[in-house]
Amino acid sequence: MSGIQLGADGGRYADVAIVGGGLSGALLAMQLLHRPGPRRIVICEPRAQVGRGEAYSAVALSHTLNGNAARMSIDPDAPDDLTHWLTAYIDGGGWPESALQQVPVAQLFPPREVFGTYARQRLAEALASSPGSTLEHAQAEVVDLCINEQGATLVLEGGVQWQAARVVLATGVFTAVRTQRTGNAAFSGLDPWDIQAMAALPKDGRVIIVGAGLTMIDALLSLEQAGHQGPIQVFSRHGLLPQPRRQPPDWEDFLAHWEGPATPRALSTELRRHCRLAAEQGVDWQAPLDTVRAHVGRLWHQASEFHQRQFVRHLRPWWESHHHRSPPQGAALLQRLRTEGRLSIEAASLQSVVSTTQGVQLALRRRGEAATCLIEGAAVINSSGIEYDWRRVAKPLPQRLLAQGLVKPGPLALGIDADDGGAVRDAAGQASSVLFSLGPPLRGLWWESTAVTDVAAQAKALAIRLASTVSNLLPR
């Protein structure tokens, strides 16, 4: 990457400043570099490497994508891009363990560390093919942002400031660390990917996992690699486990010409009907479910607030467990642990967590019960998912943006509000000409705003919009 671009007054300038250097930020930078003309880009990211974020910093080979290579291209114009890159990567000696999956490359589930390498390489190639453009990695967290006549000033931890014509909030996801109702401090527990910390636990100690989504699957894989042999208790609000991901044949896109009412009840009834038809024909029920994916953003965006709330309240847990499915390796481990009697899953809500001399003690309320029960274990892993409500995110920048009225909560308090092209709306509902966003912060607008293909499509559309408005706006 290039050196810092200094103006005549010694200030740091960029045409576009990207806040967050995970996958969202990297894909936007890549798409901006693909647009004609030179531009100056800075990515503000505290991690040492751009393009990985939390999701793709995992180094264990067992922590894989939950989609196969054919589904996970970062290039919206080339659905086979990851398949082609992965083929060359494997042929060059990378990821020799891929042979164990014994499937074509398009059907492989790559480790997330390998996927991060893919994203970083594609970003480097985009920079190399954009003469005159610069890309700077400012390795620090943005703690404040102010709008001014030239665009915006970003204040980084440590006091360094950047001036940018346009700023994009590509903050990715924030881990859900919930404050307990008893008034205890919020708990974090063991990192689901910290294998070294898990290896220090008693081998036969009871481990408690809060949350039953895909992060829980990662935690199981980490415990397995750490050599853990004791019981594992999983608690989640609904007690639902991720379904295993299979690779079913194509199915009719029955929502492409849907003429019925677009209500959660009507759509779920139609989906169940097609799943039954598939079963009668000997076709995996995942086939019709996978056709829904392409329509989620449109249907959610068009839905009334009443129907959005109806979906979240009644259907969301089943959608999450059936749509966000576990990769084969994780699904196989989950099934083995249950067969061995080492793993149990219960529906319960967490009330509090306290440390004990032997580990931790959790107060839980099981579904349907009024009384609170106490569960003890050697350790607790917080796999409770993502916090989308920015009002509850204990980070300086979200708090400052909300306090200044530069952003407002999105629909149902999911992320932040923006127009259809990603321009952030302020507290008065006015779309900004300076501040933009993409990816997870726009969950309230599009629902499925975290998947690779969705973020890639948003990155391309936003890059086109920004490239048409930022050209020599700041002094060089």
UniProtKB/TrEMBL annotation:
Organism domain of life: Bacteria
One Pfam family matching this protein: NAD_binding_9
Domain FAD-dependent urate hydroxylase HpyO/Asp monooxygenase CreE-like FAD/NAD(P)-binding positions: 17-173
InterPro entries cross-referenced by the UniProt entry: FAD/NAD-bd_sf, HpyO/CreE_NAD-binding, L-asp_N-monooxygenase_NS-form
Name used for this protein in its record: Pyridine nucleotide-disulfide oxidoreductase
Organism of derivation: Pseudomonas quercus
